[in-house]
C-alpha cells in the first residue's frame, strides 16, 4: 500500500502503520497465462477451513508488521500467513481466505487487510480491533487502486471518475478528493496521489499542530517535488516517488537521501521503522535506512540479504518482507523467512 508498480506493474505501494504506518502492496508484472487445467471457477465461495498446500506461484504479495498475504497466480485466491489473529481462528492455516479473481492487496501492520477483485469491488477483513471501521464501510463504487493506512483508514481510486475516496477512521479530510488520479498511497497523516498528468498531490492532517512551522518541524516538508512521476510510496511520515527515467525523490521526515541514478522502480517503505527499497534496472533490490539513528551496523530486518532476488516485486514489513522472483515463486526474509510453506 502500495503501494506501487506500473503497467501490469501497477499496485499501490502503500505502507501502513498501526496508528502510524503499516505494510505495502505490490503487484508483479503479468506472467504467462495459467494453464487451462487451472482455470478459475465461477464459484466465489471459500472452502471450509482445511489445510491445503500454498500456491507455488503468485501474482502479488503484500506485507505488514504481523501478517503477509499473497494472491495465487492460478486462481486469484488470497492466502495469508503470519502471527495468528484472535478474531480469526483460522488465520495462519494454509487455506484461501478470500474468493478467486482478486487482483490487488493491501495489508496493515495491525493484521488488517483489504483486497480488490477484477470488477473493482473491495472487501476488508482481519484484526477485529482495527478493522471495525473498514469492514462493512467499503465503498460500493468500483475502484481501480487501494491503500490502507494505520489499519483503520483505507483509500481507493474510483473507476468511473478517478477520484480518491477514503473510508474508515480519520477519512473525513479525504472522503472525496477530485481527480483524475492514477495511483494513491497513504500514511496515517497523509494521502498522496499521482494525477493523470503525472504530477503529485499530497493532503495532510495538520489539525494537531498550532502552526505550519510546528507541522514542518515534526514531519518535515510535505510539499511534493515538481515534475512528473510514475510511482509513489508513502509511509512513516515519508514519501518517495520515481520518474519515468527511474530517478527517486523523497520528501517528509526522512534523514538519509535515496540512492542516486536512474532505472529504479518498485519503491517500498517499511512499516514502523525507517527503511526503504527499490529495484534497479536488473531487478536487484537496492535498500537504504532513512534515519541515521538506525545505522548501528546491524542489518535492518526489513531489508533483504544482498544475494536475494532478482525480484519482479517486493513488499516490506516492520521486521521482514517478501518478494516475487522471476518464476513467480516467493522468497521471504526476516520475521517471514521460510514462509509461505
Characterise this structure.
This protein has 341 residues and is mostly beta strands. It has a single domain, classed as Regulator of chromosome condensation 1/beta-lactamase-inhibitor protein II (Methylamine Dehydrogenase, Chain H, 7 Propeller), CATH 2.130.10. 4% of the residues lie in helices and 36% in strands. The chain contains two helices and 23 strands. It has a five-stranded antiparallel β-sheet, with no helix packed on it. β19 and β20 form a beta hairpin. The chain starts with 23 loop residues before the first strand and ends in a 7-residue tail after the last strand.
Layout: helices, strands, pairs:
Blueprint: E1 24-27, E2 58-63, E3 67-72, E4 78-82, E5 96-98, E6 102-107, E7 112-117, E8 122-126, H1 128-131, E9 143-149, E10 153-158, E11 164-168, E12 181-187, E13 190-195, E14 200-204, H2 212-219, E15 231-235, E16 238-242, E17 248-252, E18 265-269, E19 275-279, E20 285-289, E21 311-316, E22 320-325, E23 330-334
Antiparallel strand pairs: 1-2, 2-3, 3-4, 4-5, 6-7, 7-8, 9-10, 10-11, 12-13, 13-14, 15-16, 16-17, 18-19, 19-20, 21-22, 22-23
CATH architecture: 7 Propeller
Highest-level CATH class: Mainly Beta
Order of helices and strands: EEEEEEEEHEEEEEEHEEEEEEEEE
- Our measurement of the CA-to-CA distance between the termini, rounded to an integer number of angstroms, reads 24 Å
Structural class: mainly beta
Radius of gyration: 18 Å
Mean pLDDT: 74
CATH superfamily: Regulator of chromosome condensation 1/beta-lactamase-inhibitor protein II
Helix content: under 10%
Q: How much strand?
A: 35-45%
The overall number of domains is: 1
The low-confidence parts are 1-49, 84-94, 207-219
- Find the count of extended strands (DSSP E, 2+ residues): 23
The total of helices stands at 2
Topology-level CATH name: Methylamine Dehydrogenase, Chain H
Largest sheet: 5 strands, antiparallel
Shape call: globular
